[in-house]
Design a protein that fits this description.
By secondary structure, the chain is α/β, with parallel strands linked by helices. It has two domains: about 5-155 and about 295-345, Quinone Oxidoreductase, Chain A, domain 1, CATH 3.90.180.10; about 165-290, NAD(P)-binding Rossmann-like Domain (Rossmann fold, 3-Layer(aba) Sandwich), CATH 3.40.50.720. The chain has eleven helices and 18 strands. The strands form four sheets. Strands 3, 5, 6, 9, 10, 17 and 18 form a seven-stranded mixed β-sheet that branches. A hairpin with a 7-residue loop joins β1 (about 5-10) and β2. α4 packs across α5 and α4 (about 145-165) packs across α10. The mean pLDDT is about 95. The structure holds zinc ion (ZN) (2 copies). The site of one zinc ion has 6 residues, from loops.
Length: about 350
């Protein structure tokens, strides 16, 4: 498709980005599709890209359009695309697999050896149109709207983190009540965890965690989290960390029971972590699992199932919605501790 579109453009390798109205509509290759973006959500990664953190500096090569959580309508398909048609409603899987490496060939495309990421290595979804490979399109069932569709990618991260810990009947602790942690609380409840405790430092996010079904919330900024977690409680079977905070990981390792499980999803901002490996991992025979992204597309199907079950109150994971041109307001609201996902509307 020819023409121009609006989008958020990061032109230079420095803090900030601009709303532009005369960006070229991206052109598609033979395996690509062009999607008219209906809803796009702001991810933690975008919170690094806009202010140009070290994480962003190591990965992003401006000029580019960023953003990668989205849902919309297919308006054009490349000549080799047979599985997706014009008019399909799709959400985007962020991880672009090579389809050739050992991981891809063993059904682990989400940890492809040559993985690229939409909105990080390629132009993203903070725009009216996005072009990407059909491999990364998840067809939305009719009963999933665009808003929920744009939440499936981060919900998949939440789901993957809870799924590996097999939480049914277990006492589960979730660290971090950002959008992904919030969804993890609801997913753990939907998957019949016996008890879910949620931790955060923002009272508004803890309120949202209660609405999501948390049996107990703890403000980890105001209290000794480890004793609060253990207080009056049966042994902690599972801790899932969505913060990446070294302190949270250490606390989780201390709080989890012998033979328990700790799942790391949040990204620490340093590799120089001091962790109680001897005391709280080896001697306790704790299983520690790293989780990234979501399985393509098993986790997506699990998310759709849970949404359909009606016992997962996804509305509490949705924050405010802003026109795309007001993206700065959305980023500011997130910084101020707004609970739930901030959504941007390009149209
Ligand atoms: Zn993301
Ligand atoms: Zn691969």
């Amino acid at each position: 498709m020819k023409g121009v579109m609006s989008g958020i453009y990061k032109e230079f390798p420095r803090p900030g980005a601009e709303f532009r109205t005369e960006l070229p509509i991206p052109q598609i290759g033979p395996r690509d599709i062009l999607v008219k973006v209906r809803t796009t959500a702001i991810c933690g990664t975008d919170l690094h890209i806009l202010p140009w953190s070290e994480y962003a500096q190591a990965r992003i090569k401006p000029p580019m359009i960023f953003g990668h959580e989205f849902a919309g309508d297919v308006v054009e398909t490349g000549r080799q695309v047979t599985e997706i048609k014009v008019g399909d409603r799709v959400a985007g899987e962020t991880h672009i697999p090579c389809n050739n490496c050992a991981q891809c060939l063993s059904d682990n495309r989400h940890i492809c050896e040559n993985m690229k990421i939409i909105g990080v290595h390629t132009d993203g979804s903070f725009a009216q149109y996005i072009a990407f490979t059909a491999d990364c399109a998840f067809k939305l069932p009719d009963d999933i709207d665009y808003t929920v569709g744009s939440l499936l990618e981060p919900m998949g991260v939440a789901m993957h983190g809870i799924d590996v810990a097999r939480v049914e009947g277990k006492n589960v602790v979730v660290y971090g009540c950002g959008p992904i942690g919030l969804m993890a609380v609801g997913i753990a409840k939907a998957l019949k965890a016996a008890r879910v405790t949620a931790l955060d430092v923002f009272p508004k996010k803890l309120d949202a965690a209660k609405k999501m079904g948390a049996d107990r919330v703890i403000n980890s900024g105001e209290t000794d989290a480890v004793s609060a977690i253990r207080d009056n409680s049966e042994p902690v079977d599972v801790v899932v960390d969505y913060t990446g905070s070294p302190q949270a990981i250490r606390e989780g390792m201390e709080a989890v029971k012998k033979g328990g499980c700790i799942v790391l999803v949040g990204l620490p901002n340093t590799n120089d972590l001091t962790l109680p490996i001897t005391q709280d991992l080896i001697y306790k025979e704790v299983t520690m699992i790293g989780v990234t992204g979501r399985l393509m597309y098993k986790t997506w199907e699990q998310c759709v199932q849970i949404i359909r079950s009606g016992i997962f109150p996804i509305e509490f994971a949705i924050g405010e919605t802003y026109p795309l041109r007001d993206f700065q307001l959305a980023f500011d609201a997130i910084k101020d501790g707004m609970p739930g996902k901030a959504l941007l509307l390009p149209w």
